[in-house]
Specification:
This is Ig-like domain-containing protein. Keywords: Disulfide bond, Glycoprotein, Immunoglobulin domain, Repeat, Signal. Belongs to the immunoglobulin superfamily. CEA family. InterPro entries: CEA_cell_adhesion (IPR050831), Ig-like_dom (IPR007110), Ig-like_dom_sf (IPR036179), Ig-like_fold (IPR013783), Ig_sub (IPR003599), Ig_sub2 (IPR003598), Ig_V-set (IPR013106). By secondary structure, the chain is mainly beta. It has three domains: about 120 residues, Immunoglobulin-like, CATH 2.60.40; about 80 residues, Immunoglobulin-like (Sandwich); about 80 residues, Immunoglobulin-like (Sandwich), CATH 2.60.40.10. The chain is about 0% helix and about 45% strand. The strands form six sheets. The chain has a seven-stranded antiparallel β-sheet, with no helix packed on it. The protein has a five-stranded mixed β-sheet with strand order 21-27-26-23-24, with no helix packed on it. Strands 2-4-9-8 form a four-stranded antiparallel β-sheet, with no helix packed on it. A hairpin with an 8-residue loop joins β5 and β6.
């Protein structure tokens, strides 16, 4: 929707009211003029703050009653005898400043002027990413706050804290694009972007990157190393990894089984040896291992 701010010189008596005060794109807005001076000859509306022929939208001459269209007339503006201006089917191109010049009888060039600025209410932005699944400390990620909206400023947040340029990230000139040169567990997000203009602000839904990392060096549990024949051997292996690691067990270099848990019932002295838990991350391509000596007596 649209919000309209009106600013007049402090000496002016004329006021402007927008009806409605908020109007969605594609709807109509009436710029209603109040407290008109007496003895008027007409009104001229301009697009922008420069009152020249190029920016001239339309004019109303009181006597004889005449409406004149200028080069900036789009076919959707209507000026009324009370100086108000109707803009139909409002578009993004209609945003910006407008000027009305109210000409009093006897004034050849001077007149009462007023300015207002028409802004689109900011839409709810969304975050798009060049890569939602980056590898830790390897891949660069580019986040953009969409849509690209004129006259809007952009702000970024991570974990509720505002972002600034640093060694590991860079913001574009208008802050709409965020470049993450290195992504770590501390910088996965959640990220939010906010769009602001003088009349409104809107924040995106949070986006968190799915960081591909690991595996870390695996740990084997329990720490017990000495067993007696006839006992059951139960070992588990864990390594932090995303996606979860693939686990493989060997004893003295010979493959035992896959999976994070190893169970061997009623072990004998033949089960003594060097146990190895190997973990591999298929996404990062990394592999790590931990060894544990088991003695069976």
């Amino acid at each position: 929707s649209l919000l309209i701010f009106w600013n007049l010189p402090t000496t002016a008596q004329v006021t402007i009211e927008a009806q409605p005060t908020k109007v969605s794109e594609g709807k109509d807005v009436l710029l209603l003029v109040h407290n008109l001076p007496q003895n008027l000859t007409g009104y001229i509306w301009y697009k922008g703050q420069i009152m020249d022929y190029h920016h001239y939208i339309t004019a109303y001459v009181i006597d004889p009653e005449t409406i004149i269209f200028g080069p900036a007339y789009s076919g959707r503006e209507t000026v009324y005898s009370n100086a108000s201006l109707l803009i139909q089917n409002v578009t993004r191109n209609d945003t910006g400043s407008y000027t009305i010049k109210i000409i009093k009888r006897g004034d050849r060039t001077e007149g009462v002027t007023g300015h207002f600025t028409l802004y689109l209410e900011t839409p709810k932005p969304s975050i798009s990413s060049s890569n939602l699944n980056p590898r830790e400390a390897v891949e660069t990620v580019i986040l953009s706050c969409d849509p690209d909206t004129p006259d809007a400023s952009y702000w970024w947040w991570i974990n509720g804290q505002s972002l600034r340029n640093s060694r590991t990230l860079q913001l574009s000139k208008n802050n709409r694009i965020l470049i993450l040169f290195i992504v770590t567990k501390d910088t996965v997000g959640p990220y939010e972007c906010e769009m602001k203009n003088p009349v409104s602000a809107s924040r995106s839904d949070p986006v968190t990157l799915n960081l591909l990392h690991g595996p870390d060096l695996p740990s084997i549990f329990p720490s017990l190393t000495d067993y007696r024949s006839g006992q059951n051997l139960y070992l588990s292996c864990f390594a932090d990894s995303n996606p979860p690691a693939e686990y493989t067990w060997t004893i003295n270099g010979k493959f035992l089984q896959s999976g994070p848990r190893l169970y061997i019932p009623q072990i004998t002295t033949n089960h003594s040896g060097l146990y190895r838990c190997s973990v591999r991350n298929s996404a990062t391509g990394s592999e790590r291992s931990t060894f544990k000596t088991i003695r069976v007596s």
